[in-house]
Amino acid sequence: MATESDPTENSINEEVNAEHILNHAERIILSIFLATLIIMTVLGNLLVMVALCKDRHLRKKKTNYFIVSLAFADLLVALVVMPFAAIELTAGSWRYGETFCLIRTSLDVLLTTASILHLCCIALDRYYAICCQPLVYRNKMTPIRVALMLGGCWIIPSFISFLPIMQSWNAIGIEDLIEERKFSSTTNETYCVFLVNRPYALICSAVAFYVPLGLMVLAYQRIYVTAMEHARQIGTLQRAGSAPEHYFGPDHQGSSRMKIETKAAKTLAVIMGCFCLCWAPFFVTNVVDPFIQYSVPWQMWTAWLWLGYINSGLNPFLYAFLNRAFRRAFLMILCCGDERYTRHGSFGPSRPYSGSVNGTSIALR
Length: 365
Known about the structure:
CATH architecture: Up-down Bundle
Subunit structure: Interacts (via C-terminus 330-346 AA) with GRK5; this interaction is promoted by 5-HT (serotonin).
Radius of gyration: 24 Å
Shape: globular
GO molecular function, one term: G protein-coupled serotonin receptor activity
Subcellular location: Cell membrane; Endosome membrane
Organism: Megalops atlanticus (Tarpon)
Protein name: 5-hydroxytryptamine receptor 4
């Protein structure tokens, strides 16, 4: 609960607000960095969406619909959320009014939560595809269920974004503190302040991060174990010289398949590592801040928030660029449809085999 402020607390708030002001050189450097980040995020996610539209082979795989919906959410983050956050950060104030501040904040929570829930759905889809029998996967991932999961990725975030934020449920009990931080009497500037009370912080963080994180850890842990067990089985059969021909391919390159399975496990570690690195600092701070009288510096909030935004730029590389079919589609698009450029490297006939479990690619490539 916010209490009545004293002169000392007001002076501290004024000093904090004054720190939002950047000098000219800092603004230029920061603007270039943020603009580059936004452009790269837009281009990466846009390329993923165009690839699915132009390549019919990509549209046949259910997982790719989650990847494209994820790209759409991340594209909206880059187009709708990040530019206004960048303008406020570089300008040192918010100049678009209180109503638009609420709308922008609601969109921020909605889109970033949708992005995270898509990552959770991708993890569950891969778990069923790799760790279960093919019949189980077909029963679990029907087109209707995929549509319901995609709908949930967009509907669930609305219950922790527009509904409570526009109704100011997140501000119950801390109205005075929010009003103090919205306006600076020394600089006559206003700010788009988003503070949350304890119930909202706990519920929002659980829905947007901790529950999806738990599901992703469980799913990827099982996939990791499956990949490593498969790699050990291949290695054992190879050393015994009793591996069936389909493990080694026409050239008996069993070591190649074992490398694929091992790399698959490492890829999963990279995916989870990037996700946790980008979002864990923000959501840990989001839960802790209301319990320490909202004493977290704004610089730390800003750094953690933009670290989370960076995840929207990394997702195309982690979930699409690491996928061989998407890479081929990207080359087709960038090379204006000239198939000569897609016949080299990892796409050529020299590597006809990719590891699979239950008929599903485990290498995530």
